[in-house]
Amino acid sequence: MTSAHSGRGDISRSLELMWRGRERSTRGPKPGLTLERIVEAAVELADRDGIAALSMRNVAAALGVGTMSLYRYVPGKSELLDLMLDHVEAPAADLAEWRGREWRDTLQFIGQGTYRLYLRHPWLLQVNQARPLLGPNALTNFEFALSALDGLGLTSREKVGLITTLVAYVSGLARQHVLTAQANEDAELSQEEFWAAQGPVMELAQASGAYPRVFALEDDTFAEGSVEYGLDFGLALLLDGFATFVAAKRGS
Amino acid sequence: MTSAHSGRGDISRSLELMWRGRERSTRGPKPGLTLERIVEAAVELADRDGIAALSMRNVAAALGVGTMSLYRYVPGKSELLDLMLDHVEAPAADLAEWRGREWRDTLQFIGQGTYRLYLRHPWLLQVNQARPLLGPNALTNFEFALSALDGLGLTSREKVGLITTLVAYVSGLARQHVLTAQANEDAELSQEEFWAAQGPVMELAQASGAYPRVFALEDDTFAEGSVEYGLDFGLALLLDGFATFVAAKRGS
DNA sequence: CCACTACCGCGTACGCCGTACCCATTTATT
DNA sequence: AATAAATGGGTACGGCGTACGCGGTAGTGG
After folding, report:
1. Number of H helices, E strands in chain A
2. Is residue A200 part of a domain?
3. In a shared domain, residues A76 and A131
4. What pTM did the predictor assign?
5. A241 touches strand C (CB under 7 A)
6. A71 found inside a domain
7. Best mutation target, A80, A108, A164, A239, to test chain B (most B CBs within 10 A)
8. CA of B63, closest CA in chain A: separation in Å?
9. How far is B106 from B99, CA to CA, in rounded Å?
10. Of A75, A112, A234, B245, which is most buried by a Cβ count within 10 Å?
11. pLDDT digits (tens, 9 = 90+) for B217-246
12. Tens of pLDDT along A66-106?
């Protein structure tokens, strides 16, 4: 029953932690933990048990330390989320191969990769990325996306507009998909029970005759596998739109 | 620091409340509240103070009643969220006018309307619509969207695919936009301070030379007004893609 | 060798949250 | 008048993030 904020705490602390890590001073006991270990444990916990289970107490327990020990490494939960975001955004290793490929292939790759990222870390969709901090990984990904649009004669605004549109679509779709899938899995209520619960009122709705088109939909419309089909379907439409735009710019 | 779940509680209770309201039995004291009033107060509270401030205690206080009194009307917070969702989705009154218009205009209207909805109720983006319950308003909107695609020779799957794609894009973009705007407004940190905080590390990043394209972007790329521009820009691209698809179907 | 100092681990406590439980009160039926 | 049902809401429990502060530890300077 909890969402989460990122970018709410001490921004510069988060950024320092992302870019520089912590410079150790020689005095005092050696730290028993590392920032890295904490972030990894937190991501693993969120992946497995969902964002609602991501409490400082649970992260600490997973690491076998006291709750407040975490605060020696991270200023607060907000900054921990910032770090988790940058952590999972680590770009694929083989980005270099993509130099010189067709822009359309590259954008499709980016879209699919982003989608997979959300599938792997569904809690991303519940994190309020109010102010996406520009961590090293975010910046690398952004640079890569921009490189895909080299040499097409686009302005900065246009490039960013295309990338924004792509990411907006993919994340929006992932949101719909992942949240539904996740509800079907780990809830106490199965998908069948859910539809069974909706059944009675739906029959009323159908009988009312106010929604003829909704109830005229084919049975297989929401069938299994419609979602993977969904990404490629919408992505192709969107990239068709991009192609029209790029062609117009080239022609002018 | 809280997200929120919807569709987690007793589904059938939520649905009953949405479709039928509560049938009053004659015995006992007259209720001092109505479901309607509670939902409206909750929406107003969420609009003004954000989802984090939406606690049962705060809603009750806004209504001048005891916290637990709310539970006489709503089974729990989860169901209250379900009701809030359906409440704000109330369709525009003038949907009937749109019969027979061009599909492209209608879809654009739907996209812009959805976008405005998110601007008006930013907390929508933080609500985990895991299982969007089909309330009367949701169903009416869906029916309207389907009606826009009448007569184009599309299958059920294709119609739903187009609508899904449109909504995914718009909600994804709204998410980026609203969360950023909201952070800029009501946080203790202004936008200038935010960028000032990013400044030092950004200079380091620039000096590293690893992100040439990012730092070669024009200064006005992220300027004010880029966001409204953003919706229409992306929407046009997407609808171009739709047009290509529809034309291909027609031609075949 | 020893004080000093900086740092680590973390126990306790406070004020939030959702809500289970229960009881006094009010009202319509019998 | 007695009964049954519904309302209002107080109290309490177990969760949360985290401020504060204390005892222990490891390098440093005398």
Report:
1. 10, 2
2. no
3. no
4. 0.89
5. no
6. yes
7. A164
8. 23
9. 9
10. A234
11. 988 887 666 566 789 999 999 999 999 999
12. 999 999 999 999 999 999 999 999 988 788 888 889 999 99
